[in-house]
Specification:
This is Cell division protein ZapB. Keywords: Coiled coil. It is a single chain. The protein is mainly alpha-helical and 85 residues long. The chain starts with 7 loop residues before the first helix and ends with a helix. The mean pLDDT is 94.
Length: 85
């Protein structure tokens, strides 16, 4: 049985490839962690905007109802003024 032999240059080249692969994996993990943190932040921002939007819609609805009430009162007053004339 013969054992394959690897020259020192081949071993060093293999070592360099492994080190580069480790660095690539490390950078990709860091990039993934940064992307996941950004996604979490954006999700929080979206939730906050949805909440603000809901509050704004509620306020618009309230203001619309108030406007209609004022319109009705003004129409009644105008009608009463017409009756006086």
């Amino acid at each position: 049985m013969t054992t394959p032999t690897i020259s020192a240059d081949e071993f060093q080249a293999l070592e360099q490839k492994v080190l580069r692969a480790v660095e690539v994996v490390k950078r990709e993990r860091e990039a993934r962690a940064a992307a996941e943190a950004e996604v979490a932040s954006l999700r929080q921002q979206i939730a906050a905007l949805k909440s603000e939007s809901s509050a704004a819609e509620s306020e618009i609805s309230t203001l619309t109802k108030e406007r209609e009430a004022v319109r009705t009162r003004v129409e009644k007053m105008l009608q009463q003024m017409d009756e006086l004339l």
